Amino acid sequence: MLNARLYVTGVGLVTALAPTREASWEALLRGERGIREIDLFDTTGLRGRLGGQVLDVTIRDAPHVATGAWSRSSMMAFLAAREAMEQAKLDPDKVRVGLVVGGTTGGMYENEGRLAELHSNPRNEDALIELLSHPLTAATDCVSYALGPFVRTRTLSTACSSGANALMVAAGWLRAGLVDAVVAGGSDGLCRLTLAGFNALSAIDPDPCRPFDKSRRGLNLGEGAGFVVLERATEVRTRKATPIAELAGWALGSEAHHITNPEPTGATPARVIQAALERAKLEPADIDYVNAHGTGTPLNDPMESAALVRALGKEISRIPVSSSKAQIGHALAASGAIEAGVCALVVQRQKIVPTVGLVDPDPACPLVHVPGEGRAHRVRAALTNSFGFGGMDSSLVFKEANLDDPPIFAEERRRVVVTAAVALTPAGLRSTRDVGELLGEGPVAHDITLDLGAHLDTARARRLDRPARIGAVVVQRALQDAGGKIVPRMGTVLSSAYGALDASAAYLHRLIEKGARLASPAEFPNLVPSSPVGHVTIYLGLGGPALATADLETSGESACTQAIELIQSGEADIIVGGGVEEASAIVERRQATMYRRAPEDQKGDPPRPRAEGAGVVVFEAEKVARERGANVLAEVTACLAWRDGETAPLADVHPSDLPSCVVMPRAQDEELTRLLDASPWRDVPRVACDGAGGEHEALGAIAIGAATSEIARGRVKEALVVGLAKGRGYALRLASRC
Amino acid sequence: MSVSEISRELKELIVRELKLEGKDPTTIEDEAPLFGEGLGLDSLDALQLAMSIEEHFGVRIPEGDEARPIFRSVASLAAYVDSSRAALGAEDARTPARS
User: Fold this and answer.
1) Does the annotation mark A134 as catalytic?
2) B31 contacts chain A (CB < 8 A)
3) Which domains does chain A have, with CATH numbers?
């Protein structure tokens, strides 16, 4: 029997203090600061010009890696992931290894000039072609190429809690037995866009920041990467790996409050901390150290203090709390993973790290602070918090590693059912009964023409940009369709393959034209990849787990798969999962240009014109759906995800004798034909939904909805949805419950 | 520009920049509180409004506690914009401040 107690066996850190784990750790303990004048780009006009810039982002000793087109984010991800894997002595050729990467800025630093150029000169083909390192998946693909093979990968974003959530997703995979080890973390490079945005929000301290201090004025941005290797106890023993710390608890939740401001009482972070402790089977009395989110903004620190007091009660009066951000800056998506790595080292080495710059603690932050330098301290277990834009809060708990602790057996994965599906395309809004009509041929216009405002309370929806409005309309309709009594703390997972590319281009253009003082504070949060999902949770009051995912043309599949995994592992009871893709002049022109410039021998059919589209599916734990009397449309009977190198991913997933169909998001290309012809689904009828469904990256979610609809209408009893993109694939089998 | 013209433009700016869809700017009362009660604006709106006022009128609004009385109502904002423009000299104020 597998012992599914989870251990960190490798830590890799790239911080403003040093590009390696040990040097970063030593500098943290000594109380050094890596906060310096940023010289990556022009900081004229910004009130804060200091940040945690990493000085040495160079890849040595890896001659097989062609890093010419890699972004800083990708390079730092590689460095930290490699360091973690080397420490764990992990060989992905010998065990099944997964990779989870959290990010927000991706290749923004490298692409800022090109995006600003494309805003004023949209036909600049060179700029279009060079936009290679932008999608968030770029770092995942670079690490995968250079350090893989990885059998399963995930790219996610929850802004500043992305890195922590990468570990949460990894824990779910390991508990479910999907993989034997996971390399999980986050990476984010500094860029002009985020610095100008936080500057516009008045969130930046012009001086080195001072978390928890009475005189604090804001944060310093930083950059970096943090990765850990996580494994089950069984594999740690088999491989004779050295456990550094146990990842004992994790939890996430949404404040559903405000896109930039934390809810001041800290109720949601407190609930998340308590859930993480419960998962770890620990009490506040067992916690001996907290590595706080501790950004140093006027609003965060008292809110986080209130949450800690609320969650840990009287114990908080003895537990030292510190923030590493005064030393390394706020490295956004990387910060949660870096701080997770630091916590693992804290429990391994029995030393705690300080809050540098803290001189006069704010009475609104009544905590046991650790000013100055690190020191020895008995730490049986440590907690770390990460809070992201949109109110996406996560906590992780690390414990001293002891392989002789009583085993934790893998929990039974909960059964997952579908109770509603909604699609919004240029052809209109389709709910569960008629999503199936999007299968087959059909003319598709370019834009969604539905009057989104007519479906929303426009006063409350005023901050929602187009993707957020599309998201709110489809999620709202899906929840109505799911009917019955809606349980609290529903989750939301929405994908976007390229994020807010056109809005970022417009923002950068204005930044260059008008200067940093006139950068819009209200528009900036909408450029973050998790902004649509954040807005949806706030607008609809959804307090459960919320995540954004991205995975090229299979982004919709990645979000649905993530939603199913979170329910299977007990992180949530109900999750609306799917994709929202707005029209993007940049993405569409880029695709056309790439096709035109491709050598003749590489050209197939011209790409179908991209359209706007969104699709979401309501997934529920079977038990919860039954208890609340929901109308169950189909059950998820298999949920697969794979990467290149997997030769027969469908070999073990058989069709039943009942009437079945294969639903393909896109009309079959050679690769998909080969895959299906060699699978047990060879003789099952196939149908595509890129005719009436349009061509966009949320199509996989529409396909899952269409398959559900076919089953609900009794046309088939079972359906397999298979989506492929470059080097990755997903398959979901749905079956009628009758 | 008179104070009443400034008020009128401020109201249009508030509706446009804060995306108060469907709100008729002329229905915003000069003395009505902008934040909390009244229009129900929050600190993110204050930042957006300060940036827009700087762009539109060439007047910088101070940060932090000093800004509170200025942001009380359209009337207080208009008075601040008017006096700042007078201090800057009307010609200079027409050009938005660049930094």
Assistant:
1) no
2) no
3) 7-400 (3.40.47.10), 416-498+550-735 (3.40.47.10)
B47 CB near a chain A CB, below 8 Å? yes
A138: buried, middle or exposed (CB in 10 Å: 19+, 13-18, 0-12)? buried
Q: Do B44 and A522 touch (CB under 8 A)?
A: yes
The whole-angstrom distance between residue A271's C-alpha and the CA centroid of its chain comes to: 21
Assign residue B7 the CATH number of its domain.
1.10.1200.10
> Is B99 part of any domain?
no
pTM greater than the 0.90 cutoff = yes
Token couple for A5: 């107690």
In a domain, B88, yes or no: yes
pLDDT one-digit tens code per residue, B27-60: 999 999 998 777 889 999 999 999 999 999 999 9
Supply the pLDDT for residue A313.
Answer: 98
B51 touches chain A (CB under 8 A): yes
SS3 A733: strand
Residue A191 tokens read as 């860029």
pLDDT at A441 over 80: no
In tens, the pLDDT along A53-93 reads 999 898 888 878 877 789 999 999 999 999 999 999 999 99
Residue B53 lies in a domain: yes
The label of the residue with tokens 């700087």 reads B54
CB A216 within 8 A of CB A305: no
ipTM of the assembly? 0.93
Residues A648, A646: Cα–Cα separation, whole Å: 6
Range of the domain at B67: 3-94
Annotated catalytic, A696? no
> Is residue B17 situated within a structural domain?
yes
- Residue B51 and residue A200: Cβ atoms within 8 Å? yes
Q: CA of B56, closest CA in chain A: separation in Å?
A: 10
Tell me how many domains chain B contains: 1
CB within 8 Å: B98 and A200: no
Give one word for A202, left, alpha or beta, with left for phi > 0 and alpha for psi -120 to 50: left
CA-wise closest residue to A293 among A318, A275, A272: A272
Q: CA-CA distance, A304 to A306, in Å (whole number)?
A: 5
CA distance A493 to A532: 10
